[in-house]
Design goal:
The protein has nine helices and no strands. The protein has 195 residues and is an all-alpha fold. The protein has a domain of 134 residues: Tetracycline Repressor, domain 2, CATH 1.10.357.10. Helix 5 packs across helix 6 and helix 8 packs antiparallel against helix 9. The longest helix is centred in the first third of the chain and has 23 residues. The N and C termini lie far apart (65 Å). About 3% of the residues have low confidence.
Amino acid sequence: MRRTTELRDDILTAARVEFAQYGLAGARIDRIAAAAHASKERLYAHFGNKEALFREVFVTDGAEFFRSATLRPDDVAEFVGEVYDLACRRPEHLRMLTWARLEGFDLGAPEFEGAPEFEGAPPMEAALAAIGRAQADGRVDPSWHPSDLLVLLFSAGLAWAHLPHPDAVTEDAAEIARRRAVAVDAAMRLIAPRG
């Protein structure tokens, strides 16, 4: 017999696969329950409804992302490499976000306050603060507005994931490493203090 936390994790895993493939509107609770080896009643008891389950998967994925990719003032460019790594390792995160946007689902800002890895600050605020510290330390061009720079850093890390071409997806380890290096180099050039 599975513990409650194991059942919950199995449901979230099955839901992540279902939502990434079909989106919120196309996902079916009966397929999620079957994949998780759970009854629909147990699923509803844990999450309430399909929309709440979608939100829970998104929040769980967001927490994983912000644990995997941390913007540090002493190495801002490496953040882009971490974003790239996560997009390669967990493409379903990006697919879920894309589905949510297409369906007009209001995800709101990710909230992970109180988690020790975020030092009590919401992750976007922590990232903006890290950029500000890097600018104050002379590591990042101070002419950038931190929120604009953060958008550009995400874009560099996700560039290949968004490329509308079949060659964007590859299993070739050398090509993956090359693309990562290009993304980090682009970030280094972007943030380099002028003059």
